[in-house]
Amino acid sequence: MPHKESVHTSYFYKKNVYCKVLLSDLTMRNICVFCASSLGDNEIYAQTARTVGKMLAENGIQLIYGGGNVGLMGQLAQTVLAHGGQVTGVIPEFLIRKEDASLTLTELIVVDTMHARKTRMAELSDGFMTLPGGFGTMDELCEILTWAQLGLHDKPIGILNVNYYYNPLLQLFDHMVQEKLLRKENRDMILVDTNPLTLLKKMYQYHPPVVEQWLRKEQV
Q1: Inside any domain, residue 217
Q2: Does a structural domain hold residue 20?
Q3: Who has the most CB within 10 Å: 45, 198, 205, 207?
């Protein structure tokens, strides 16, 4: 049964991430996946969402996601559940119908706002993986990167660059560094690969840079 929460804070606590190579020995058990609420025109995106879902389930990793049953989100969650995995969805009340939050998930959390959704997903997750998506996915990715840049968390953030979808965005990030508007150490926080399992291993091996915390949690 879904339950509604009120989230009053945007700050989430740092957790230790133990970096090893063998997936069976790893402690990252909850991964948040950002992805589209539509399927796109290329079947490779849905296929990739299903591949990621199967990978998470087979490695005992719980999926944390936006709670919908549409687009790549639906393909991902359905596949995790079909392979015996666990799924926690977080969705604002006003999107329940639009994003068809009808799947019988392990847990469905209903919140008040989009910001509360991102906050709760971040609190529940040990790392973040981004699949192809539009404005909503970009918003989620860039906010979680900003929180890392501010020192509010040190969790790994990965981009699955299937079909080289994210090449233009990655080039923009590089341009930001060249123009001295983004620090290279912050650009280097972004883990990228075209293979889901290789990206997952990179996330497990991630060593966060030492970042000065710009804000205290009560300031956020």
Answers
A1: no
A2: no
A3: 45
Q: Give the model confidence (pLDDT) of 79-121 as tens digits.
A: 999 999 999 999 999 999 888 887 789 999 999 999 999 999 9
The pTM of the full predicted model, rounded to 2 decimals, is 0.84
Q: Is 191 domain-assigned?
A: yes
Structural domain contains residue 14: no
Three-state secondary structure along the chain?
Answer: CCEECCCCCCCCCCCCCCCCCCHHHCCCCEEEEECCCCCCCCHHHHHHHHHHHHHHHHCCCEEEECCCCCHHHHHHHHHHHHCCCCEEEEEEHHHCCCCCCCCCCCEEEEECCHHHHHHHHHHHCCEEEECCCCHHHHHHHHHHHHHHHCCCCCCCEEEECHHHCCHHHHHHHHHHHHCCCCCHHHHCCEEEECCHHHHHHHHHCCCCCCCCCCCCHHHC
For residue 161, what are the domain limits? 28-205
